[in-house]
Design a protein that fits this description.
The protein is of the alpha+beta class and 205 residues long. The protein has helices at residues 14-18, 34-42, 46-49, 54-58, 67-85, 89-93, 113-124; strands spanning 2-3, 96-103, 109-111, 132-144, 147-157, 171-181, 187-196.
Length: 205
């Protein structure tokens, strides 16, 4: 299954989905709260959820029926984007399990929701305080009925004051998420690895 910035859900939803190209918070899309935004995503039609199956992109060993799991993974992605752009590290960390692992773009390993929140709070109070995180597209693969792997292509503007980064430049990267259904039925991120697409010259094989 692939999340895109297109309408696939019929009358009434296309304007808001297409606005994701230019707006990156729930409020900006006309929703009063992030929770209302997520309810909107979860209530999309089954036709949209099955528009692209993991089998098309990942081979015959993948589950083809994403169903509600695909919608829940979409909701987690959008909750993360919304929390980032509101510079709300508590809401960002709330998308992770208590014992989650997070590898940031610099290769630092943060363990547990508390550390993930604390480290992001420090960053959003400094070099990321004016950053804008925009999802470009993402894929969802169910490797088990209650485990989804998401690869999210993103771009970001507004990173400032960091050695080696041009404040005016647009960063691009891939965020890999392992999202797991909990006993409470809530889907949360168990592991994440963020990567900057830094230009470099590859050595000859």
């Amino acid at each position: 299954m692939q999340g895109t910035l297109e309408d696939t859900t019929g009358t009434g939803s296309n304007d808001r989905l297409n606005m994701l190209e230019t707006v990156d918070t729930a409020e900006g899309l006309g929703f009063r709260t992030a929770e209302e935004f997520l309810r909107f995503i979860r209530n999309q039609s089954e036709e949209a959820l099955h528009r692209r199956s993991p089998r098309e992109n990942h081979g015959a060993d993948a589950f083809t029926d994403t169903g509600d799991a695909g919608a829940e993974a979409d909701a987690v992605v959008l909750a993360l984007v919304d929390a980032w752009n509101r510079h709300d590290p508590r809401s960002w960390a709330a998308c992770f399990t208590e014992d989650a692992d997070y590898i940031n773009v610099a290769g630092r390993h943060w363990q547990g929701r508390r550390e993930i929140e604390g480290q992001h709070r420090e960053l959003h109070n400094s070099v990321l305080r004016n950053s804008r995180f925009r999802p470009l597209a993402w894929t969802i693969r169910l490797i088990a009925p209650q485990v989804a792997v998401v690869h999210l292509n993103w771009q970001m503007k507004g990173t400032e004051g960091h050695s080696g980064w041009d404040d005016r430049a647009t960063r691009r990267g891939i965020l890999t998420l392992v999202i797991v259904q909990q006993k409470s039925n809530r889907w949360l991120v168990s592991a994440a690895h963020n990567t900057d697409m830094a230009p470099f010259t590859a050595p000859h094989a």
